[in-house]
Design goal:
Two copies of one chain form a homodimer.
Chain A: H1 5-21, H2 27-34, H3 40-52, E1 56-57, E2 66-67, H4 69-79, H5 87-96, H6 104-119, E3 122-126, E4 135-144, E5 147-154, E6 159-165, H7 172-186, H8 191-196, H9 208-229, E7 233-236, H10 250-261, H11 263-271, E8 278-281, E9 293-302, E10 306-315, H12 320-337
Antiparallel strand pairs in A: 1-2, 3-7, 3-10, 4-5, 5-6, 8-9, 9-10
Chain A binds a DNA duplex (30 and 30 nucleotides) through residues 24, 26-29, 38-42, 44-45, 47-48, 58-65.
DNA sequence: AGTTAGCACTCACGGATAACGAGTGCTAAC
DNA sequence: GTTAGCACTCGTTATCCGTGAGTGCTAACT
């Protein structure tokens, strides 16, 4: 039994219709709606074949057919045609996404908001992973007798700081020395290199006062570094789920929202995705993702280097063509926003 | 018609029962359950009176009575007895809330998580308002040819920073001068004072290079200051709503979650609340809060100075006594965590 | 041989009806 | 003032049944 042209046309029609209506569709209705020059009976036979091949299912005996995950996959890979975003929409996105380079995080958050607004799905965005980011310098500044600020600056311009109380008195001079020493030791190393290095664990100096100071500061130094490594997850449009008929059921909605609330799981899932525009459908997803959800993600780049992720999550029944285009376009815009105007770093 | 002792006892019994079961309760069931020495008929009469006075309602003619918001108010003010948290629970809270002074934000977030876990409601916490916080110093540090880090440190130890790209070349010396000038101008002023001052808008120097530098930096200086003023809202247990029968209805749950997603509104509502442990019931709340929700909040202090808020939101039917105690205790623990061990600042 | 008409069958959905039970208010007796 | 008795209300649940969109199968048609 082969997947001839007619079968593909029928499959496409079913998916097309189902994506819009959300209702199972039967042979008779399909032939009326799409006028494909063959009788319902013929369609019925083809449908039965498509089902046998795993591209369709039906919720119960006397209902119409709906696409299976495998059906969607075929559609996304071969049947779906590229959707060109209307110029108007492009302009809206572009205008809402202008910002300057400094507002990296706000821009990413804004992009997530935009994405959920346009797609009516739940969107998310990950800030870039900083694994490869290299330390520039470390600075410890006095605040008052018992408080100092530890500040770590990376090549990328990312800054992380903590105010910390210390239990021993300090002199500004000692702070300066410690800052210099730390900078000297770690400048040019990546964050993860520093974190796994031994030196950091047994940082020693021969000056008594200094070593006491270091004792106070080093644990926080590590924490602050770890903070720099963490990616942040932004989300928007969580409640959009309620406007989707399939999830208009208390249990489904609950499960969906509970899935979203497990930010760690979600972050991990997203971090592990491949680069580029990736679509995963239903059970292709990892276990953390609800069974009948699909994920569309893309990677954006900062200054050509660092990468973050952005995308949407929704029911397997979604307008893959349109949504892919939106995600693609937003990513494109992000890339150009985060591109350095001149030269390289 | 007066609110005699017997009426109060009946009201208390009704509220007590309703808080537990969530079902309207009738005269017969009440008399059986509580064995108060009077017949259902008598209870019925008293109930009718209580309803006339506005403390009870019934959802429909042939249903039992349920407390009205006014009824809950009476209960909370006069009938409710203090609930003593079991020692075990106290220990759990205490042990989970230990942390050092530096981890202010994490601790607050943790407290919110704890609150939702124990109460099975949605909890939230506001970071301290920084209005009265006073600037300590401003530092501008070089990163690379086109990037500097602007860093503002407040008396409280709070630090805010932004990495910013500037369009003109700079010398480290100029940065240092600008830092010093800014610090000199604004040290000792509160953030809001600085933000509303004129100086900031037309910062001028006679040195050409400096003024160009300042032009680049000042707008970001203001933004960074504004960031320092913003309070952050943490939330936890949003999906707990699904386990509450009254909200086990798609529309209700949706409205609740949509209310929570309007963070700005929520933050405003919380910021505007009075100090101390405050309970507001149903329509006593501002419009942003769903009609049949109650709010219990408390203020925690950092180092003795008044500041942040923490609390829970749930259906008007909640265990006011227990939950108030939990909120109170968590607040207490936060206070002692955030108390400086010695002396004053 | 592929296509189609016809037909018996399936099954979710919606409306109608009825029994049930927890409740009420009222009246009259205690 | 309290209580027993009673008629009445009304949401809940179960049952039944007609409807209609669907199916698979078979036999006739091109």
């Amino acid at each position: 039994m082969d997947l001839n042209e007619r079968k593909l046309r029928i499959l496409q029609a079913i998916i097309h219709d189902f994506i819009i209506t959300g209702e199972p569709i039967g042979s008779r209705t399909l032939s009326k709606k799409f006028d494909m020059g063959i009788s319902p009976a013929t369609i019925r036979n083809e449908m039965a074949d498509l089902e046998e091949m795993g591209f369709l299912t039906h919720p119960h005996t006397s209902a119409g057919r709906i696409p299976s995950d495998k059906g969607y996959r075929l559609y996304v890979n071969h049947l779906m045609q590229k959707y060109e975003l209307p110029e108007k929409e492009k302009q809206i996105i572009a205008s809402k996404l202008t910002s300057d380079f400094n507002e990296l995080e706000q821009t990413i958050e804004k992009a997530a908001g935009l994405l959920s607004e346009i797609t009516n799905l739940t969107s998310f965005a990950l800030t870039p992973q900083q694994d490869e980011d290299v330390l520039k310098y470390i600075n410890i500044l006095p605040v008052d007798e018992r408080t100092v600020v530890l500040m770590i600056v990376a090549e990328s311009g990312k800054v992380s700081n903590t105010a910390l109380r210390i239990s021993v008195p300090y002199s500004e001079e000692n702070l300066a020395i410690l800052s210099k020493t730390l900078t000297y030791n770690y400048r040019g190393k990546t964050i993860s290199q520093v974190l796994t290095s031994d030196i950091i664990k047994n940082f020693e100096t021969d000056i008594e006062a200094m070593s006491r100071l270091a004792e106070n500061i080093m644990p926080n130094f590590m924490k602050t570094l770890e903070n720099m490594l963490n990616v942040d997850l932004y989300m928007a449009g969580q409640t959009n789920i309620f406007s989707i008929p399939e999830f208009n059921d208390i249990d489904k909605a609950k499960m969906f929202l509970e899935m979203l609330s497990k930010k760690d799981d979600l972050t991990r899932t997203l971090v592990n995705r491949d680069d580029g525009v990736i679509i995963t459908i239903g059970d292709e997803n990892s276990e953390e993702i609800l069974p009948d959800c699909s994920l569309i993600t893309a990677t954006y780049h900062i200054d050509g280097k660092l990468v973050g992720k952005i995308g949407v999550i929704g029911p397997t029944r979604m307008k893959y063509d349109e949504i892919t285009s939106v995600v693609e376009f937003v990513t494109e815009k992000l890339n150009s926003t985060f591109k350095l105007p001149e030269g390289k770093e």
